């Protein structure tokens, strides 16, 4: 394992790293956040940039005042920053700002109805609910299998593309799993999908913040057709998501949300919609959120996305080795595949429900993790070997303790020191399982 600093060289880049939180014994400790896959804290520069901009804040587009013109300029320049960041083509692509990845996928599922209503959408068995549920009530959906480790089966993808033939219009796949951290070979998949006349959507919510991502030129056989991601997972709060896709996709039908900001001309008899992307951004856009994302991207680029990936991967390897030596810990990521993961490690402690482990880490040690099914229940059910019969029981009785895992997810501000504190905490919890079973009731957590 490569040597990395005991303390993160990026610690001072984010807000709140020294925040004190209360413990069960009424003392306080410095919070440790290992829940970055859900939401990252903001970069300090992001907050500063927004404070500096705030005197100039104004409603964008169509305003004649200087502040409105200036705000519009920054808003539109943000599309160029994002385009450069992920290799989009501003002449070919629309870059649409929404609330988050979930809204972006829902919008795309609506927009593609004009083109592919009778087509087949291939999703996978490892998707977040946000890249599964929006497709179910509109299209014929099938799921690409995962293997015993939870990794995508390329063989099953090939077989399904052959089996469905020209009926497959879209393959929609996570760039990196929010459960196991596995990175999918998106460019290899894109080339295969294109050979069968379909297009590829990549859910980049977990991939884009953690390493270099490039959509590749439109004429390239490995080009990514659609990409979505969220600002709040890459150190930029205030609720912005990004949907990137061919402009023609958004010209084929009226916007799914209509109203102010979507039209060029309206009478009681006629509507002429604006060109994309404006027609897909109904109402007053979230300029603060968009500028936060632009600021965060600039900071990430100054660090270097390859460096972000390298640093976080070193943290992940250290954490994996440390957890491997703790009695009763079950790990759900394949050790030999750590070079193909983002900074996520799911685990359980035998004999303790995942909610008890998470509560103990928070209330006894000030360590924040996530537990449960991470909005990917079908995937968790496969990884945990939950039978169809057991699933029926969970459906019938919502009071049953749900199966799940504890998830660690790291950011660039996390450190070896914090992982070592976590390791000691988990040793204590593992060796004192009876104590924590008595102290924390599953139904009350």
TrEMBL record:
Domain Aminotransferase class V: 32-422
InterPro entries reported for this sequence: Aminotrans_V_dom, Aminotrans_V_PyrdxlP_BS, PyrdxlP-dep_Trfase, PyrdxlP-dep_Trfase_major, PyrdxlP-dep_Trfase_small
GO molecular function: cysteine desulfurase activity
UniProt catalytic activity: (sulfur carrier)-H + L-cysteine = (sulfur carrier)-SH + L-alanine
Coiled-coil regions, chain positions: none
Keywords: Pyridoxal phosphate, Transferase
Cofactor: pyridoxal 5'-phosphate
Family assignment from sequence similarity: Belongs to the class-V pyridoxal-phosphate-dependent aminotransferase family. Csd subfamily.
Name this protein carries in UniProt: Cysteine desulfurase
Organism the protein comes from: Alkaliphilus oremlandii (strain OhILAs)
Taxonomic placement: Bacteria, Bacillati, Bacillota, Clostridia, Peptostreptococcales
């Amino acid at each position: 394992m490569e040597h990395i600093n005991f303390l993160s060289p990026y610690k001072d880049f984010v807000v709140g790293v020294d925040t004190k939180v209360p413990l069960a014994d009424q003392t306080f400790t410095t919070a440790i956040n290992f829940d970055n896959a859900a939401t990252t804290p903001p970069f300090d520069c992001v907050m500063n940039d927004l404070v500096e901009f705030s005197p100039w804040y104004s409603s964008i587009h169509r305003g004649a005042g200087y502040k409105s013109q200036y705000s519009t300029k920054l808003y539109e320049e943000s599309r160029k920053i994002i385009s450069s960041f992920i290799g989009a083509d501003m002449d070919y692509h629309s870059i649409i700002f929404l609330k988050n990845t979930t809204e972006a996928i829902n919008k795309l599922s609506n927009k593609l109805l004009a083109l592919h209503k009778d087509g087949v959408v291939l999703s996978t068995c490892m998707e977040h609910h946000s890249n599964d549920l929006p497709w179910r009530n509109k299209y014929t959906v099938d799921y690409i299998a995962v293997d015993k480790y939870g990794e995508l089966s390329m063989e099953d993808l090939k077989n399904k593309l052959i089996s469905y033939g020209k009926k497959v219009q879209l393959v929609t796949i996570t760039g990196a799993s929010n459960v196991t951290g596995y990175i999918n070979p998106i460019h290899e998949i894109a080339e295969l999908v294109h050979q069968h006349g379909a297009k590829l959507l990549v859910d980049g919510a977990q991939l884009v913040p953690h390493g270099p991502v490039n959509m590749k030129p439109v004429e390239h056989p490995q080009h990514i057709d659609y990409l979505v991601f969220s600002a709040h997972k890459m150190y930029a709060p205030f609720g912005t998501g990004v949907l990137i896709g061919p402009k023609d996709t958004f010209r084929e039908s009226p916007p799914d949300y209509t109203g102010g900001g979507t039209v060029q001309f309206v009478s009681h008899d006629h509507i002429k919609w604006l060109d994309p992307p404006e027609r897909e951004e109904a109402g007053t856009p979230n300029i603060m959120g968009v500028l936060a994302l632009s600021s965060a991207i600039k900071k990430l680029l100054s660090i270097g996305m390859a460096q972000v990936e390298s640093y976080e991967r070193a943290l992940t390897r250290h954490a994996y080795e440390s957890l491997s030596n703790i009695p009763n810990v079950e790990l759900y990521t394949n050790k030999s595949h750590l070079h193909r993961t983002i900074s996520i490690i799911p685990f359980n402690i035998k004999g303790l429900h995942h909610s008890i482990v998470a509560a103990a880490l928070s209330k006894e040690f000030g360590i924040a993790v996530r537990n449960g099914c991470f909005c990917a229940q079908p995937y968790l059910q496969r990884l945990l070997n939950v039978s169809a019969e057991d699933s029926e029981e969970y459906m019938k009785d919502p009071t049953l303790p749900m199966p799940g895992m504890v998830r660690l997810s790291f950011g660039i501000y996390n450190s070896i020191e914090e992982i070592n504190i976590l390791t000691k905490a988990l040793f204590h919890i593992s060796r004192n399982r009876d104590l924590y079973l008595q102290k924390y009731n599953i139904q009350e957590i």
